[in-house]
Specification:
Distance between the termini: 9 Å
Largest sheet: 5 strands, parallel
CATH topology of the largest domain: FAD/NAD(P)-binding domain
Helix content: 25-40%
CATH class of the largest domain: Alpha Beta
Radius of gyration: 24 Å
Number of strands: 18
Strand order of the largest sheet: 5-2-1-9-17
Number of helices: 14
Structural class: alpha+beta
């Protein structure tokens, strides 16, 4: 087992005013000549919104990319389950939104526990990402005149969320997938579906690749690259019931943690307020109902304890719209942590609904009377259909029943400003890292974190300052023999030294050779 070593947490946040940090830092970073980019290889673990778009972007820039996913197709990544929308500070509604307001709402919503420089950069790059999505064919909802539509989400008093009905994550993932497959077709990306990462290869303190198992043949093989990107999602399935797919097993970031990568804020897990309540012990997971439903749905319970009357028989004056009563500024769009806590409180008081008493009503009667069934069906039709298939209740006629459930992890592998972990050469994207949401994530910010950081800002931060491109470099020496590759992941003395002195804090480490299968390495122990 590797010796424990002290971990230095150095954020590497650039100096200067927060609104100028990213712009100035992009100029200060070293660039890579386009003809040199093809000399470097990158491994990407995960093909969700963060991983898929990062792989496509890096391949487009000219790097050699190998992409691994647990599923049989990149399209089955769990990003497909994100329903509600993606935030961006475009201010199309002219309601006072701005980059600074999105930054402030995100930091405040996270209880002021996020790294503010990272959050401001996220808000800054969000402005361009919607145009990127539209250019890739993402069918965002539009107003009658053809302009992109917006709606509100929890924790914000402006309408900044772009959406595609209740399947925004699916449409965004399809956009990333087609960009990924285009690069696969061009030969710039080697795709490895049905592969599970077994080990992070670390040599002389630097990430040099991964060991992965082919889930169809059982073969265990090693893959070497100049950098490893982990974009494998969160660890929410540590809870028995969660809205995660059961395949979200957090293997990749756990292997990195066992190799010495620091793990930050593991207790910061988000309980989503609008999930379908538990019905029995037969369930293996829970189902999320999009937070977007709270735009038009009103949340309430009876004012009386133990009231078992059907919702239609409870008069208006006997209903407690507790979010509207407690938090009039935000109402039913209160932040997720506040809404979840309030729902649990009324259920603990004995005012919950349903056979278990663990639920509250999400009622669309007022919205249907005001807007009509056709408008509600246009906005939320697929969500209503999903709810009816699961519960056998028609939400157009009776209120939905919802209850909080485990949904997202704000904690993850610690990363610096450049999204590099405490192991040099390991970069962590999306939900797998800890950097952007603090102690609570606002609605529609997960997709905002996954796509913009992977497309707009991360490839810029992957500036290579390796000595490989220097004219004073010595010629590559002979790679490690098969005998040296067996057993320990250690090369002959002096080999890695001849490959350069290692990267700076923002560079990719040089490795032995381009990414490719290295047959003959033994299976790594599952620790």
């Amino acid at each position: 087992m590797d010796e424990e070593r002290p971990v230095e947490l150095k954020s590497n946040v650039p100096p200067g005013p927060i609104e100028q940090k990213w712009t100035s830092h992009k100029f200060d970073m070293k660039l890579v000549n386009p003809s040199n980019k093809r000399k470097y290889s990158v491994i990407v673990v995960g093909t969700g919104l963060a991983g898929g778009s990062a792989a496509a972007s890096l391949a487009e820039l000219g790097y050699q990319v190998s992409c691994f996913c647990f599923q049989d197709s990149p399209r089955r990544a769990h990003s497909i389950a994100a329903q509600g929308g993606i935030n961006a500070a475009k201010n199309y509604q002219n309601d006072g939104d701005s980059v600074f307001r999105l930054f402030y709402d995100t930091v405040k919503g996270g209880d002021f526990r996020a790294r503010e420089a990272n959050v401001y950069r996220l808000a800054e790059v969000s402005v361009n990402i919607i145009d990127q999505c539209v250019a890739q064919g993402v069918p965002f909802a539009r107003e009658y005149g053809g302009l992109l539509a917006n709606r509100s989400f929890g924790g914000a008093q402006v309408s900044r969320t772009f959406y595609a009905r209740g399947q925004t994550g699916q449409q965004l993932l399809l956009g990333a997938y087609q960009a990924l497959q285009r690069q696969v077709g061009l030969g710039a990306i080697k795709m490895f579906p049905r592969h599970e990462m077994q080990e992070l290869v670390v040599i002389d303190g630097m990430a040099r690749g991964i060991v992965a198992r082919d889930l169809e043949t059982g073969a265990v093989e090693s893959y070497v690259a100049d950098a490893v990107i982990l974009a494998s999602g969160g660890y929410g399935t540590v809870f028995y019931l969660a809205t995660y797919a059961k395949g979200c097993n957090t293997t990749a970031i756990w292997r990195a943690y066992k190799k010495g990568a620091a793990f930050a804020n593991p207790c910061y897990t988000q309980i989503h307020p609008t999930c379908i309540p538990v019905t029995g012990e037969h369930q293996s997971k829970l189902t999320l109902m999009s937070e977007s439903l709270r735009n038009d749905g009103r949340i309430w319970v009876s004012k009386k304890k133990g009231d078992t009357r059907p919702p239609g028989q409870i008069p208006e004056d006997e209903r407690d719209y507790y979010l509207e009563r407690k938090y009039p500024s935000y109402g039913n769009l209160s932040p997720r942590d506040i809404s979840s806590r309030a729902a649990k409180e009324v259920c603990d008081e004995g005012r919950g609904v349903g056979s278990t008493g663990l639920g509250v009503y999400l009622d669309f009667a007022e919205a249907i009377n005001r807007l009509g069934v056709a408008t509600i069906r246009e906005r939320y039709g697929n969500l209503f259909d999903m709810y009816e298939r699961i519960t056998d209740e028609d939400p157009y006629k009776v209120p939905m029943r919802i209850y909080p459930a485990m949904h997202y992890c704000m904690g993850g592998l610690w990363v610096d400003y450049h999204l590099m972990s405490t192991i040099p050469g390991v970069f962590v994207l999306g939900e797998a890292n800890f950097s952007d949401h603090g102690a609570n994530r606002l609605g529609a910010s997960a997709l905002m974190q996954g796509w913009p950081t992977a497309i707009s800002s991360f490839p810029t931060r992957l500036a290579i300052t390796s000595p490989r491109t220097s004219s004073t470099r010595s010629a590559p020496t002979t790679p490690p023999s098969r005998a040296h590759r067996r057993g320990s992941l250690t090369a002959p003395r002096g080999y890695w030294a001849s490959r350069g002195n290692g990267p700076s804090t923002i560079s990719i480490a040089s490795s032995a050779r381009s990414c490719g299968t290295t047959a003959g390495w033994p299976a790594m122990s599952r620790v």
